């Protein structure tokens, strides 16, 4: 039969079939490689599938030839790999790539793994806090003037405050509600309640951000295993389906960012919802990258949960809490639970836990008492340079 007359094979459905965290928080002993391995073993055990089923692998942030170096450490010989590195959005983008590869038949089961000892390395003197990502290429025009990563986020927050009247108290509410969610998560690094006044009274790190506006620094890793639909009957847990995903890269140089009040999630989110065939109003749980409080607020706007400029008013009324209108960062997020670096993979793990009903004391319930049906995980990379958004459903 001529190629033009052949019927195209229908794309396969793709599910998350295994998830896990490594030891997280204050982890002084293991290396980053060991945390990768721990998370990978636990995710495979969670899935019920054997290591020999994994023919795809995605990793970034460790090793000279990632993901080849990490795959070798784990004893894997994948025939499909991805080493996309776009900061915190890396893992949502990788999940989108993996789902596409599985749907097309290029891989059957893809393992995404991350691990970092960011906190332990600083304590041991193996590294220092990074002020800049580098000073080559376009960044050479910013780094010499002390334009640090946090300063870029702070500038964007100030612009939103100027344009829309967003207040420091509203930004502080994001941190307060993240901590309230963390209080119910025994794995969260910080669980003691905080108030808006506590946030405002802290030392200024980069105006307008005080210390509690900023994510914590922790150790830890996690893993997510995606597989084709025909493997689902052999898995140990009910599947969580990848319904749609989107990705977008906006800028690197701040002077090329057209509007500081719009993040790349405005594009990745729209694509993800369109491809999933759902609306923001249908979402039960949102896991959003929160290196700083402003990230949560502006991403809520750009994903369509509220109109542009209304993020401050949206977060004021406790909507982000576990029992709120839209539970956000249900584990406590990077502001309170853990943040070992590129946190995007943790968003996927928490979203799956919520949909499975495995979140324990911080489990979200719908008004009728049932488990969440739909979740969105949206990662942000760099200084709002990139975004990846994934919609998941039971």
From TrEMBL:
Superkingdom of origin: Bacteria
Protein name as catalogued: Acetyl-CoA acetyltransferase
UniProt source species: Streptomyces pratisoli
